[in-house]
């Protein structure tokens, strides 16, 4: 059985990818990256929802230590238009590093579940990082399971956030892009 490290942004987005990967015979371990999730209380809500889901599904998850919100913001300030690119790279790089250390056969991300994410960019970055760190990036378009994941997360009564994670996406949610 091949071991795969799955970057998990939140519990609802993990439902379908976990089902698919297990169905394909992968032994899945998760990795929760937290420095891009703002504010801190939101980070904790997502982490706690993932802990409950992981326990229910019997998946081991590595939880990132610390909360370097300042580091994240310092890297995107004055580059807000390209913040997603930085964020994808940071999360995928952290996942690749852990996958290499843990001798995983591959790594992937639940970002590939969302219809709001830039799949081509995620795939290209993942593949480049996979080559750099010697662990292949496993690309799969999980968007076909978008509705299934939403329905399952509601049935399971999991916390469902309404924005990507960073303070900028929260602003866009509440203030609206049309007002920017």
Describe this structure in words.
This protein has helices at residues 11-23, 40-57, 69-76, 83-101, 119-133, 146-155, 167-175; strands spanning 3-8, 27-32, 61-63, 106-109. It is α/β, with parallel strands linked by helices. The chain has one domain (3-179): HUPs (Rossmann fold, 3-Layer(aba) Sandwich). It has a four-stranded parallel sheet with strand order 3-2-1-4, with helices on both faces. α1 crosses α6 (146-155) and α4 runs parallel beside α5 (119-133). The longest helix is centred in the middle third of the chain and has 19 residues, at 83-101. The termini are far apart.
Order of helices and strands: EHEHEHHEHHH
Rounded mean pLDDT score: 95
Main β-sheet, in a few words?
4 strands, parallel
Q: What is the name of the CATH architecture? A: 3-Layer(aba) Sandwich
The radius of gyration over CA amounts to 15 Å
Anisotropy-based shape: globular
Domain count: 1
- How is the largest sheet built, in terms of strand order? 3-2-1-4
Question: At the fourth CATH level, what is the homologous superfamily?
Answer: HUPs
Distance between the termini: 49 Å
What proportion strand?
A: 5-15%
Low-confidence stretches: none
Helix content: 40-55%
- Based on helices, strands and strand pairing, what is the structural class? alpha/beta
The tally of strands reads 4
